[in-house]
Amino acid sequence: MGHEETVYEALGLAPGDERHWAFGTGFHDPLAGVDTTVPDGIDPSDLGQYCLMLGDDALVLAQRLTQWITAAPELEEEVALANIALDLLGQARLLLARAGSVGVLGRSREKATASIPDEDALAYFRDADEFRSTALVAAPNGDFARTTVRLLAAATVRLAVFVRLRASRDQVLAAIAAKGVHELTYHRDHAARWVRRLGDGTEESHRRAQDGVDVVWPLLGELFTPTDVETRLTAAGVAVDPAVTRDEVTGVLTTVLERATLRVPPWPADEPPRGRSGRHGPDLAELLIGLQGLARAHPEATW
């Protein structure tokens, strides 16, 4: 962010037309010094779709976490969840900007004004069927215990992918992953501490934590089935086949649940990656109303 200390200063100090939405504007180029050339032999459309998958997961989960603001069980945890959401929002911004830079915009650009950056057009002007996020991040928060279990699962999966993406042939993805690994390690460990605290706490906290596990676990079935895009990009050294992270993820989650004295449900059978192909339930559409409403109502507004 350069000399701006907060997003608010960045918005206030941004010159001229750069003052717009808080997402994706008012910052210096985060990819300065990184080779943004699409690697040889890579279809830019595939790369863009892959960035949407990773970026949409981050954006949607960030929105879910911000729903805890003013509602978390304690002030310190409210701040922690807000900071995790900001980390994810930063990852989403970088990934959606990469998707836009390789030409993945479509209807979102048609609906947005020309002055809106690509990442903002992708965040605010796509419909639910254009999002590539998973059901795990789109599902409602439920109570605090369910939220922590979901965060543990999502962060564990994402960290396993980002660790491997640091070796991606796409230097932009590699740079995003290198930065994100540190953030996601904190997200995972923070959630793990809370799951252990709740699971091995009172009878009521244990019951709620187990209920959270039982609701979240079925949502994991589609996470390890690669799409055709992921298969092609993995073979080309750009992406990560989610199937290779299965053992690591199941090992981490099993360990945390056992230490929290929680019952580990049977691992769900593999399912087609519905969310990655734009097939979502009503939860995502409802969430997008809150995320996109202001931008769509006032697309020409500046701050």
Characterization of the model:
The chain has 303 residues and is mainly α. The protein has one domain (37-297): Ferritin, core subunit, four-helix bundle (Ferritin), CATH 1.20.1260.10. It has helices spanning 7-13, 44-66, 75-101, 107-111, 118-124, 135-138, 144-165, 171-199, 203-216, 228-235, 246-259, 282-297. The longest helix has 29 residues, at 171-199.
Task: Chart the SSEs and their pairings.
Layout: H1 7-13, H2 44-66, H3 75-101, H4 107-111, H5 118-124, H6 135-138, H7 144-165, H8 171-199, H9 203-216, H10 228-235, H11 246-259, H12 282-297
Helix pairs in contact: 2-3, 2-10, 3-5, 3-8, 7-8, 7-9, 7-11, 8-9
The number of helical segments is 12
Judged by helices, strands and strand pairing, the structural class is mainly alpha
SSE order: HHHHHHHHHHHH
CATH topology (level 3) name: Ferritin
What's the CATH architecture? Answer: Up-down Bundle
Uncertain runs: 1-27
CATH superfamily: Ferritin, core subunit, four-helix bundle
Mean pLDDT: 89
Strand content range: under 5%
Shape: globular
Quaternary structure of the protein:
single chain
Largest sheet features = none
Classified by CATH, the class is Mainly Alpha
Radius of gyration: 19 Å
> Total strand count, please?
0
N-to-C span:
17 Å
Please tell me the total number of domains: 1
Enzyme class: oxidoreductase
Keywords: Oxidoreductase
EC number: 1.14.13.149
Organism: Blastococcus deserti
